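Appendix B. Raw example, untouched.
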Amino acid sequence: QVQLVESGGGLVQAGGSLRLSCAASRSIISINAMGWYRQARGKQRELVARITSAGRTNYTDSVKGRFTISRDNAKNTVFLQMNSLKPEDTAVYYCNALILPTAWGTWRDYWGQGTQVTVSS
């Protein structure tokens, strides 16, 4: 069973930076789009940033110019560099990827377990 393993969350002061990482737990056939979502307390989960297998990116408006998503296809890993963090960025961040796990399998969405990001004012 493929898992997405996240790391890099934590507590940071406003204006600071964090870098999130997410990697597939074992070898897989292929990964299509990868992304980061977040869910603040009492709010719905929202897309933060997404990157296609070709490297095209899109961001939610509130993080444009501050966050950068990237990926290492050789290591099946996606990153989220978060700069100029604000208290409103506080949330649990989830990694998401569309994966073909085996040659005889089917494409499906996988989710990480979530990592807490807390930005203090």
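End of appendix B.
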